[in-house]
Write a structure and sequence with these properties.
The complex is a heterodimer. By secondary structure, chain A is mainly α. Chain A contains 15 helices and no strands. Classes of the chains: A mainly alpha, B alpha/beta. The interface between A and B is medium-sized, with 23 and 37 residues.
């Protein structure tokens, strides 16, 4: 029997890990001579108490939902996709090509087209290492991380040598036509009569596509026979073989779904925010997806909550960098600590909790 | 009579989390005797021996060796106290020689050659003393399992063990090799060594032990003198109720052939030929038992028929040829659609996803079938759950909780989940490998009944087992495999263990007759 009640496993363990990470971060902030309490206040003020703060936070959250879902789908097949960064970059390329070269009458159609383009490009980029893993046995961790560098190179080539308008000194594509621009939260709010809400914040309608992706992923993983096969293969390769689940096919499909989700992040960043293809637009979201998936325990609901948390940390970190001498990298440290506690050291958190629950159980008997 | 017992355990208790593996165990083993410990899987035999060998520390209790109280914090201390252990899975370095394996961990200095020459001399004495002949320069992977086991025994003796613990030693041996082992053990007893034999086979206990202890659910239920008990009595003590040791079945009424295998050949990933011109046929209403020592191609035969190993040759199901390429038309799901159900040899590795809940496991392999789909895209989880509950109930799975993960069921109940899934589909052919390996006696009885019941419904069954008893009592026809070949077919009424044992050891059929 499982020792701990399910809710402890799902809620208390990650929260406890988060608390430990925050505690260590507070010590670090103390060590550089700032007040952790003031820092936390500032983060909350700059994120949760202003609508623009929400606008930024949800913009980051959208990215993290996509990459977090991507990593968790691969996790279910026991594949570690650390190539989210590269898949998102190539997805961005897909978005740019779709937006620049197809005349879209309206953004509603453009976002569908761009989503398909982004997903397709991300899918192909994840499919290559997946093929190497499934057919040739090259380890997916090594190949996906290599493909991040190749993707960066490909992106630079396309941006600088192909898509950059002649005469421009800026390494970026031309601006996308206005008919592809996505409504931001500010646009939506002013339509509803709130002129000042979400002022100049980048969050846009792709947030809702991210929410839809959460639901779709849940159905895929827990309801479809494909998800069943992905999970079966992830738990036991030998058993999957026995049941007639084809490992090569499932590895390919799981990674391509993962890549597609990563690629779709670009509709938020590239179509929604920059409205042209720029370099480094991924800002490490592909890697944060790993932390999000770990903390969200590879469940779409968990991924959503973890993405919110990381969105908060990201936006709050920017505020800290703006108003205090705490460097923005501090947020990276906190993220690293969260990964450490939720992933690598989860047993350290889990074991004492299990002992605690066991002692309660014994007392009951 | 003031002789001290060679080993005495007093009040040993050990828990793992909420599970109490050993409860207040007390046992006395006199020197120069063979003491059997018998019990079902999970009864706590292995835990007890692990405590004695220093792998676990007891929560409570005392250990006495030769009347002196000692503590055994690790295996070094156990060896120092004269305790040697022969594990079920040998702990040998495959590409080292016999001599190197024996010396490993007991080198006398920084240089290897003096240790080796000392060991060589020592080995010669041991060999003559106990009739334990092995070639000291043979490489482990080149010698048979029987020999490897001897090396394990020699390793213990080389470390001056006076008490030898053997954990399920005959699991990997042919009957002839097992006899040889028993001769060695008797010889060791004559020389004054004390032997503890852990097994679940009643026959071995009756054959060789002087005294026997029975364990059930972590407790020592009885310690008896072997010649004053009977197998029926021991079985009852093990299970806690009366059990049927022989399968109760009527004569088979075989009909048309269901499975026809002709000239089946298979090479593994390393290019080694694992199946050599195998030809077999199984008719409806018949159980064909394939006997053989583990590793002689039986597993590969199952894998080929189950659709996950490529092979050449011809296999027909009810007259129609099946695809042996393991492509989409020949994979596990295609096989199931053709009416072949498969209970794999290793239920924990293959038959079940241990982290899946029972209901999820109840459609494993059949999950893409129409009856399990709500629509084109999704599985009908509610229907599957309900169906699982009914199936598991009919197979008496305990606890009857479809939301429990497979890993939280006992071995016997896990096997029942697999059998429920495969048999309830009412297949034309059931492939079943080691149906009762690691399963308690009570469940064995039930599982055998289910297999016979399927036969009586006119289905064909291919049974693969390394337990000769099981083959003899279930089969209507017996084929023996050795080195990937079928050595011969026999009727159970016209053969005996000795003949089958010779076939299993590779002595050709003609020579036997």
């Amino acid at each position: 029997m499982d020792i701990m009640p399910k809710w402890v496993d799902i809620i208390v363990v990650p929260l406890f890990s988060l608390f430990l990470a925050a505690f260590l971060a507070a010590l670090l902030i103390l060590a550089i001579g700032e007040s952790p309490v003031a820092a936390l206040n500032l983060m909350i003020e700059g994120t949760l108490l202003r609508s623009a703060g929400w606008g930024y936070m949800l913009y980051y959250t959208t990215n993290f939902i996509f990459t977090g879902l991507a990593v968790s789908v691969a996790f279910h097949a026991a594949l570690f996709n650390i190539g989210g960064e590269g898949q998102a970059m190539i997805g961005g390329l897909g978005v740019a090509l779709v937006c620049l070269f197809i005349p879209w009458p309206h953004w509603t159609l453009a976002i569908i087209g761009a989503s398909i383009g982004a997903a397709l490009f991300g899918m192909i980029w994840a499919g290559l290492p997946a093929y190497l893993q499934a057919k040739r046995g090259s380890h997916i961790v090594i190949t996906t991380i290599m493909f991040n560098f190749i993707a960066a190179g490909v992106l630079i080539f396309f941006v600088v040598d192909v898509l950059k308008p002649t005469g421009s000194m800026d390494p970026a594509s031309a601006n996308f036509p206005a008919s592809t621009h996505l409504p931001t939260f500010q646009d939506i709010a002013s339509l509803m009569g709130f002129e000042n809400a979400f002022r100049s914040a980048p969050a846009n309608v792709s947030f809702f596509i991210a929410l839809f992706a959460c639901v779709a992923t849940w159905y895929l993983v827990w309801r479809s026979p494909l998800g069943y096969e992905i999970r079966a293969l992830g738990k036991s390769g030998a058993a999957a073989r026995y049941a007639g689940v084809r490992p090569v096919k499932i590895i390919m499909i799981a990674m391509m779904i993962s890549g597609a989700l990563c690629g779709m992040m670009a509709i938020n960043t590239t179509q929604g925010e920059s409205e042209r293809l720029i370099l480094n637009f991924t800002e490490g979201a592909g890697f944060i997806g790993i932390a999000v998936a770990l903390m969200g325990r590879s469940h779409p609901a968990g991924v959503f909550l973890a993405a919110l948390l990381f969105g908060f940390l990201y936006q709050g970190g920017a505020e800290l960098a703006l108003w205090t001498k705490i460097p923005r990298e501090m947020i990276v440290v906190i993220q690293a600590l969260v990964i450490l506690f939720t992933g690598a050291l989860s047993l350290m958190v889990r074991a004492p909790l299990e002992r605690f629950f066991m002692s309660i159980k014994k007392a009951d008997v | 009579m003031t002789m001290n017992p060679a080993i005495e355990l007093k009040g040993i208790s050990k828990s793992f989390g909420p599970v109490q593996a050993n409860k207040d165990i007390t046992i006395r083993v006199m020197p120069g005797t063979i003491h059997g410990i018998i019990g079902e899987n999970g009864a706590g035999k292995s835990t007890l021996m692990s405590i004695l060998y220093g792998f676990y520390r007891a929560d409570a209790g005392e250990i006495f060796v030769d009347g002196k109280k000692i503590s055994i914090p690790d295996s070094q201390a156990a060896i120092a106290a004269g305790i040697g252990m022969v594990f079920q899975h040998f702990k040998l370095v495959e590409n080292f020689s016999v001599l190197e394996n024996i010396v490993l961990g007991a080198e006398s200095g920084a240089l290897l050659s003096p240790s080796l020459s000392k060991a060589r001399a020592e080995l010669a004495t041991l060999a003559s003393e106990y009739e334990l002949n092995v070639n000291p320069d043979a490489i482990i992977e080149d010698i048979g399992v029987g020999m490897q086991q001897r090396v394990e025994i020699l390793k213990a003796l080389y470390r001056k063990a006076s008490i030898l613990i053997l954990d399920e030693p005959t699991g990997v041996l042919t009957p002839a090799e097992a006899d040889q082992l028993f001769r060695i053990l008797k010889r060791l007893r004559e020389e004054g060594k004390t032997i503890i034999l852990i097994t679940h086979k009643l026959r071995e206990i009756m054959d060789i032990t002087d005294t026997v202890s029975v364990m059930r659910q972590g407790e020592m239920t009885a310690t008896l003198e072997t010649n004053k008990t009977s197998p029926e009595n021991l079985a009852e003590l093990m299970v806690g109720r009366k059990v049927l040791l022989r399968v109760d079945k009527s004569p088979a009424k075989p009909e048309n052939p269901v499975l026809e295998i002709e000239d089946l050949n298979m090479f593994d990933d390393f290019g080694v030929q694992r199946l050599k011109n195998v030809s077999l046929s199984v008719r409806a209403g018949e159980i064909l038992g394939v006997a053989g020592v583990a590793g002689n191609g039986q597993s590969e035969l199952l894998e080929v028929l189950g659709g996950y190993r490529k092979a050449n040759g011809s296999v027909k199901i009810k007259g129609s040829e099946i695809d042996l390429s393991t492509g989409v038309a020949g994979d596990g799901q295609a096989r199931r659609a053709q009416g072949i159900a498969h209970v794999p040899e290793d239920r924990q590795r293959e038959g079940l996803i241990m982290d899946f809940m029972a209901w999820e496991n109840s459609v494993f392999g059949y999950h893409r079938e129409k009856s399990n789909q709500a629509n084109r895209f999704f599985m009908d989880n509610n229907a599957i759950r309900k169906d699982a509950e009914a199936k598991l109930d009919r197979f008496d799975v305990r606890p009857l909780d479809t939301k429990l993960r497979a890993k939280n069921f006992s071995g016997g109940n896990q096997q029942k989940i697999v059998l429920a899934r495969e048999i309830e589909r009412d297949p034309d052919l059931l492939l079943v490998g080691q149906p009762t390996r690691g399963v308690d006696i009570g469940a064995i009885e039930f599982i055998h009944q289910q297999i016979v019941a399927l036969r009586d419904r006119g289905k064909a069954i291919l049974l693969i087992s390394v337990e000769l008893d099981e083959i003899l009592s279930l089969s209507d026809k017996i084929a023996v495999m050795f080195d990937g070949r079928i050595m011969g077919e026999r009727l159970p009424s016209e053969t005996n263990e000795k003949e089958l044992g010779l076939l299993m050891a590779g002595v050709s059929g003609e020579a036997v007759q």
